Amino acid sequence: MNNIYWEAFGIFFKIGAFTIGGGYAMVPLIEDEIVVKRHWIAKEDFIDLLAIAQSSPGVLAVNMSIFVGYRLRGVRGSLVTALGTVLPSFLIILAIALFFQQFKDNTVVERIFKGIRPAVVALIAAPTFSMARSVRLNRYTLWIPVVSALLIWALGFSPIWIIVGAGLGGFLYGRIKRKTDRTKLKNL
User: Fold this and answer.
1) How far apart are CA 188 and CA 175, in angstroms?
2) Is 58 helix (H, G, I), strand (E, B) or coil?
3) What is the largest CA-CA distance in the chain?
């Protein structure tokens, strides 16, 4: 195997092994390793991959690893990064299943998990703020995520309908904007 395969596997294995809180908690770590430290993917491309991973069925962290791996080295890269992401969780769950009866009522373990919760919230919030900066939210566009969150939370709308509506809205906005741009060019 080429060195990049081992390096990518190691990165995603490390992130998978030491991140608690799921895919959203992994996003800033993946971004730091792939975009900031190694410059394998541009920031704008990473945001696009994240959007695709979020809208694809499956686990966000696995989707991200597959898309990053594919971007780096095609199908082999996606297999290596997906394995790197999934393997630590599989091994940890296997170990927990083997020894669960021995520590299920341990107060120290219970306190550890209670202490981890605030860190998980922070790890999930970090990519949210990072994405908000990169998509240039302003006073004209801030209403979109706020209304979406309220529709899901307060009115029980399905996120699928929000995604479909946002997609249609973006498509229509693009068509209208393109039409007005053409009109402005003709008038010059």
Assistant:
1) 20
2) coil
3) 78
